[in-house]
Amino acid sequence: MTPSRSTAEARPTSTTLTRVEARRAWLRLDVRFLPLAVTVLLFVLMFGAGSLAFDSFFSLQVFLNLFVDNAFLIITAIGMTFVILSGGIDLSVGSVIALTTMVSATLVEHHGVSPAVVIPLVLAIGAAIGLVMGLVIQYFQVQPFIVTLAGMFLARGLCYLISIDSIAIHDATLSTWSQARLSVGPLGEVSPGVVVAALVLGVAVWLAHATPFGRAVYAVGGNERSALLMGLPVARTRIGVYAVSGFCAALGGVLFGIYTLSGYGLHAQGLELDAIAAAVIGGALLTGGVGYVMGTLTGVLMLGIIQTLIMFDGSLSSWWTRIAIGGLLGLFCVLQRVLELAHRARSG
User: Fold this and answer.
1) What is the pLDDT of residue 13?
2) Domain with 99 in it: what CATH number?
3) How many domains would you assign to the chain?
4) Radius of gyration of the chain (CA)
């Protein structure tokens, strides 16, 4: 007995099912992008509010200064993003930045070593610190919080073994880099550090989304047991993300040292928290497996716009920056938790 025409039309076809599944997939994608969308919207609203409240705020140069003043934080937060995506944390990045500035300043100013030798050396030191921490975390099964906290104390302590005082950098090459500006059309300019940050950002996006390493990072952060069953190199991936974070912190330290033209043991205090906040505000889950490198960039810009608004106002204490960042961080943690619960309810 053949089905009637009306019955056949009522029965869903494979094409219809495919469209429904695609629509559901887009809905899931939209939910994943919601924290990032909220961050972008807040940034636009805050920039617009600043433009209405302050003269000369609405300009290309004010926007570009967010990158100029935070190039080192962008690079550091990118490294932190890879660690968070893997389900870990790295509290040592601020101290690695300070150590980088101290080693660079000492070698360049006191021993006359060329910056061309010093920069690769400090980058290798940063990557080595991250590598050692990754090895301890992976093979001794120690919590990342404890290992990187030890790394933070170690790097900060080494700064004071080198010198208690700040070391000014007078090297002609580094001074030239610090003062150099690259034109971005007739209305703005950026520092060479912004170009470096843009290159690192591009490489990080490619590494996270177009390489086996990036896919392994997401898999390990999402479910380590499943990643092992899939045959992914879990140990190599976990060690690798801490080496990447150490390298990025050292590179951020190079830019920070050039930006301030000094080395000091107190540099970048609390910057590890700014890097974590930028990643979370940009949509990364602290539990791992969810987040985007471009989201971290928007998180850094959010921190930058808050500082800029307070600077333009002039009547508010700089501590309001920390209060605002703390409020935003709490808001986004709650938002992520709500989305996670909603996802579980749909899946259940």
Assistant:
1) 53
2) 1.10.3470
3) 1
4) 23
Residue type, 126: G
Q: Are 94 and 152 in contact (CB under 8 A)?
A: yes
Q: Which residue has the higher pLDDT, 345 or 279?
A: 279
Query: Is the pTM here over 0.85, yes or no?
Result: yes
When pLDDT is averaged across residues 222-245 and rounded to a whole number, the result is: 95
CA distances from 7 to 10, 12, 16, 19, 199 (A): 5, 10, 15, 20, 59
Per-residue b or e along 137-166, where b marks 16 or more CB atoms closer than 10 Å to that residue's CB? bbeeeeebeebbbebbebbbebbeebeeee
For the chain, the 3-state helix, strand and coil shares in percent, each to the nearest 5, are 75, 0, 20
C-alpha 4/C-alpha 12 separation (Å) is 14
Q: Is the pLDDT of residue 1 over 50?
A: no
Residue 234 forms part of a structural domain: yes
Residues 171/115, Cβ–Cβ less than 8 Å: yes
174: nearest Cα among 199, 193, 190 = 193
**How many residues in total does the chain contain?**
348
Residues 6+ apart with CB under 8 A from 327: none
Confidence check: pLDDT of 4 > 60:
no
DSSP string, 76-89: HHHHHHHHHHTT--
Of residues 17 and 183, the one with the higher pLDDT is 183
Cα→Cα distances 245→128, 136, 213, Å: 10, 15, 14
Which residues constitute the domain of residue 87? 55-347
